[in-house]
Amino acid sequence: MSTLSRLARAEWGPLYSTVRDRLVARRWRAIPLTLAAVCLTAAFQYVQNQSWGYQFVQDVGCVRAEDPLWLSLLRTPLSLFVPALDLPVWGALAQILLVFGIAECCLGWWRTLLIGYAATLGGTLYARLGIDLGPDNWIGLPASDAQVVDTGPSAAVVGLAVYVCWRYRAYVTGALVIVLMVVEVLVKNNLAGKEHLAAIAGVLVATVVVEVVARVRGRGRQRGRGSGSGLPPIRS
Asked: Which of UniProt's keywords are assigned here (predicted)?
């Protein structure tokens, strides 16, 4: 086996095996959330390009920093599936099918949905903070970004990609995703790119917290098991 093959197996082996086994066992039934997300995103794309449907999609699924917070939180669940009007929809559909599909095979549908929403919400809340800080701050945003629609499914895609890479120890791939998002901000300094980084930061913080809590609980259980005298139990 060549060095490249060994590196690829070490990086993607566990992830590939998990996805393959899940798809072989259940086929399309393994990714119901992913299929629903693809269909819903395609439906929103069609509706928002119609004269009668544009305002409807804006009202139910488009989030801007200038909106009241309660309204943004109300729209966030559907904003996850509203693609950007200025980008080809096939790119968004391909990203959702690939990343959501891998995540759903590895994590299950409810964890995939939870992490996707957490990443999207992180980007949404960052936009408000960045505008409050202003363009003079290195993480701030200009006031005009308050009228820009949030990223939609891309923040969830980026957050899920980083989380799955961390969970299955594909650290090089996860680092590459982060580097690409940083380059995106350097090349095209816009709200979407910064929201991607905010989504990644939120997911990384959550994973560190989960890891610390798991280790603390594990140590507590080990101490509990070792707290006895070491003698066999007394039999009556």
From this structure: Membrane, Transmembrane, Transmembrane helix
The CA distance from 191 to 134, in Å, is 13
Contact 144, 130 (CB under 8 A): no
The predicted model scores a pTM of 0.87
The β-bridge partners of 149 are 64
Phi and psi at residue 64, to the nearest 5°: -130, 150
Local confidence band at 151 (pLDDT 50, 70, 90 cut-offs): confident
Cβ atoms of residues 197 and 128 within 8 Å: no
Q: By the 8 A CB rule, do 123 and 150 touch? A: yes
Q: CB count, 10 Å around CB of 2?
A: 7
**Within-domain flag for 234:** no
Separation between Cα atoms, residue 54 and residue 136, nearest integer Å: 35
Count of structural domains within the chain: 1
* Residue 236, domain member (yes or no): no
DSSP assigned state of 228: S
223 belongs to a structural domain: no
Q: Phi and psi (nearest 5°) for 149?
A: -70, 140
- In tens, the pLDDT along 37-54 reads 999 999 999 999 999 999
Q: Which two tokens stand for residue 235?
A: 């039999």
> For every residue of 167-211, which 3-state class applies, written as one string?
HCCCHHHHHHHHHHHHHHHHHCCCHHHHHHHHHHHHHHHHHHHHH
Residue 87 belongs to a domain: yes
